[in-house]
Amino acid sequence: MKISLKEMAKRLSLSPAAVSKALNDYPDISLATKNLVKSYAKKVGYKANSQASFLRSQKTKTIGVIIPDITNPFFNKILKTIMTLAQKNNYSIILGNSKESFSLEEKLVNQFLQQKVDGILMSLANDTSQYKHLENILANDTVLVLFDKVAKLINCSKVFVDDKDGGFKATEHLIKKGCTKIAHFRGGLNPQNSIDRYLGYREALSVNKISFDPNKVLITSSGSIEQGYILAKKLYESGIEIDGLFCITDMVALGAIRFFKEQKIDIPNEISVIGFSNTMAGNLVYPSLSTIDQKASKIGAEAVRLFLSEEKMLKTENRLENQSLVLKTTLIKRESTQRI
Amino acid sequence: MKISLKEMAKRLSLSPAAVSKALNDYPDISLATKNLVKSYAKKVGYKANSQASFLRSQKTKTIGVIIPDITNPFFNKILKTIMTLAQKNNYSIILGNSKESFSLEEKLVNQFLQQKVDGILMSLANDTSQYKHLENILANDTVLVLFDKVAKLINCSKVFVDDKDGGFKATEHLIKKGCTKIAHFRGGLNPQNSIDRYLGYREALSVNKISFDPNKVLITSSGSIEQGYILAKKLYESGIEIDGLFCITDMVALGAIRFFKEQKIDIPNEISVIGFSNTMAGNLVYPSLSTIDQKASKIGAEAVRLFLSEEKMLKTENRLENQSLVLKTTLIKRESTQRI
DNA sequence: AAATTTCACTAAATCGTTTTAGTTAAGGTT
DNA sequence: AACCTTAACTAAAACGATTTAGTGAAATTT
Question: Is residue B296 predicted with pLDDT exceeding 80?
């Protein structure tokens, strides 16, 4: 079953060099020999050993992808697009799940560099605040493309979403629906995305001359359903009145809605709720969840496109030239903000 | 930044062989030299080139994983477990998404073999009915572990779920809740899993002396929400009366429930509904969805365990010895079958 | 006909490690 | 003192492909 190039050469009474060149269509091999070699290779099922080829070509045709949470549908959708496009361009994907842990992320980067991937596409873990491992990637002449959760200070290609604009759109939508007492369940100080959504919320209030009330802003410790439920309960029990709620993620919004429904509060008429991300689940529940779509597929597609363009640059001019891309979000109006 | 073993040897005035041996703790290198080499390697950030190491060791410390649908939460959960355990055992994961397509699956297998992965863990696409590519894996002395959607005829390690037992449990649960006119939305003739669930349904009816009515069985063309909605509508409009429904997947069940709710049919009291897979979404909707849990994590964990055990066998005794594992499902009772 | 060019190859080095088979010097045995 | 061990290395081949620098013969030019 396994047959090497050398062995083929021996059987065809040719030198290994001739066989290699025939397979790679070098001009100094006759058409007759090329056809002979190719048809024989097909017949015996010869496949070049990628590892061995690498030693000379220095290309593995492999991309490393690191994602903070592989079960998160948003990252999942990005990954799906990345994989489809990688396959189309004959690249393999080595996948790493950093589980939002900096140390695991660092370990994965080193592992990928050791495996000599041609590039690394990654979204940073929440607690990543030093970037030595990223600089290390660039120092190894490996392409780096950051997506979604990026480090703005690192000199590499990036694709991310305008989170502030997203937060603004979400909040303004609530205001347009007539809400005036709008709460926000925000994230912590990491990553930047969660801060930006909060800043969008602040700006929408400010632009619409609604005074900001810090008591209406609660901080989530995770983006889970349970957190949404807990914070909604906390807010409700504190007695602060609201008629609108913007949550940092769809899951948090779903948790909050569950609590409000248990209290027989009418969603959206008493309290309108909007999430962020356009997770599939938001379309399954009742009332269906208004949200901000982040164009996951687009992020994945652009990440691959940037990689390919950098890879080409590296090959032809032996240098990296990076590019930043900021994608706008889209408002998805559903029942949870459809007041009557 | 990049430094090779050879270069280190030169700088330390040692032979490449001595450096290699020192790093790999060979007994014929003095402790002093080992310490010198190791500390110098650490200092200059030396990392062995995996591709080069492979040429001699023939081990890439890489596992190829092929999944039919990477966005499916069930496979996603399996993948997550596989990745965690692989990482723990110092293996990298090369991921392939076959998108339920045989030809893509075949292509991925060949690609992985060419990359010389140490093993392939895969779940078959629905339209895979020839197994030459699987035999090819074994012929290349590469470990093969099939999970969930397996080919029983292939002589390799397997982990899968007792789908017939799951279908039986689901149907019997409806019967115990008092349902007597139970419909089933089944899958097509591929994969075996969907047939087995149907057979479990048939058996539960038979054991409980409920006569089988072929008019109550509809065939889905996909496992989507839309399909569930369409089939529920079709069944409703045909005028056939039912008081229970067992769907091949949770998504199909959610689609059916949506249609019934639109018709103001009381779930679970007029019609009780149960799904299959225990997808997260089933817990988010109202009424929450009863279902059959397939222990995705367990499947992933066992797949890795089987791989490691086969890999060890291959190394020590130079042969493959496979093992089959059948996991039992668990019934998850929720609101969609909780009659009052 | 001699010189040059072109064609179609081969030989050998190379990529970065690992491993087998020496080699040398020191120490121990008789 | 001659012989044998042992410790601690080194030299060189090997893994499987690619690539540079030749090489000999045929074809073409002058």
Answer: yes
Q: What are phi and psi of B327, to 5 degrees?
A: -100, 140
Of A2, A83, A114, the CB nearest to B48: A114
Q: How far is the CA of A55 from the C1' of C4 (A)?
A: 38
Q: Tokens 């949770």, residue?
A: B250
A37 pLDDT above the threshold of 90: yes
The tens digit of pLDDT for each residue in A235-260 reads: 999 999 999 999 999 999 999 999 99
In chain B, ranges of CATH 3.40.50.2300 domains:
57-161+297-326, 163-294+332-337
Which residues of chain B does A86 touch, with a Cβ-Cβ cutoff of 8 Å?
Answer: none
pLDDT digits (tens, 9 = 90+) for A278-293: 988 888 888 899 999 9
Three-state DSSP class for B146? strand
Put simply, the answer to whether A280 touches B280 (Cβ < 8 Å) is no
Taking the C1' atom of every nucleotide in all shown strands and the CA of B8, the nearest one is C16
Report DSSP letters for A260-273, one per residue: HHHTTPPTTTTSEE
CATH topology of domain B163-294+332-337: Rossmann fold (3.40.50)
- By CA distance, what is A281's nearest residue in B? B281
Distances (CA, A) of B200 to A274, B164, B167, B325: 42, 4, 4, 19
Question: Nearest nucleotide to B46 by CA–C1' distance?
Answer: C16
3-state helix/strand/coil string of B175-243: HHCCCCCEEEEECCCCCHHHHHHHHHHHHHHHHCCCCCCHHHEEECCCCCHHHHHHHHHHHHHHCCCCC
pLDDT in tens, B73-93: 899 999 999 999 999 999 999
pLDDT in tens, B144-190: 999 999 999 999 999 999 999 999 999 999 999 999 999 999 998 87
Considering only CA atoms, name the residue closest to the C1' of nucleotide C16.
Answer: B52
Are residues B77 and A71, on separate chains, in Cβ contact within 8 Å? yes
**Given an 8 Å threshold on Cβ–Cβ distance, is B71 in contact with A93?**
no
Q: Which fold has domain B57-161+297-326?
A: Rossmann fold (3.40.50)
